[in-house]
């Protein structure tokens, strides 16, 4: 590393250097992790595997939406999957004499 004579720098240059050092310190651990991960992925690839295959970790899949099972007869834009709390329109329709089958999609 090159020696820097701090006495030769202006206040503006010293503050810029201080800012650069603070940033380098705060990101040091993250850079080391990224480098280690990259090396491990390269090594796994050399053996014909992915790192996820070797560690048994996978990216979690997003669950598919359950889809609508019931629709509001007064407003078809309002639907309910049948999971969770019953929407007010669903309960109001039942109280008004509709059956659950009347509300099915």
Question: Can you list the strand order of the major beta sheet?
Answer: 1-2
The percent of residues in helical segments reads 40-55%
Number of strands: 2
Number of domains: 2
Q: Return the average pLDDT rounded to an integer.
A: 89
Secondary structure category: mainly alpha
Largest sheet: 2 strands, antiparallel
Radius of gyration: 30 Å
How much of the residues is beta strand, in percent? under 5%
Give the helices and strands as they follow along the chain: HHEEHH
Q: List unreliable stretches of 5+ residues.
A: none
Shape: elongated
- Separate helix tally: 4
C-alpha termini separation: 71 Å
Question: Mind explaining what this structure looks like?
Answer:
This protein is mostly helical and 105 residues long. Helix content is 50%, strand content 4%. The longest helix has 36 residues.
């Amino acid at each position: 590393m090159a020696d820097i004579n701090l006495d030769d720098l202006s206040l503006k240059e010293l503050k810029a250097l201080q800012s650069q050092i603070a940033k380098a310190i705060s990101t040091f651990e993250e850079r080391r992790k990224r480098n280690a991960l990259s090396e491990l992925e390269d090594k796994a690839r050399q053996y014909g595997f992915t790192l996820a295959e070797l560690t048994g970790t996978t990216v979690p899949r997003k669950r598919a939406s359950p889809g609508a099972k019931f629709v509001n007869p007064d407003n078809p834009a309002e639907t309910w999957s049948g999971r969770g709390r019953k929407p007010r329109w669903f309960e109001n329709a039942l109280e008004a004499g509709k059956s659950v089958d009347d509300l099915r999609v």
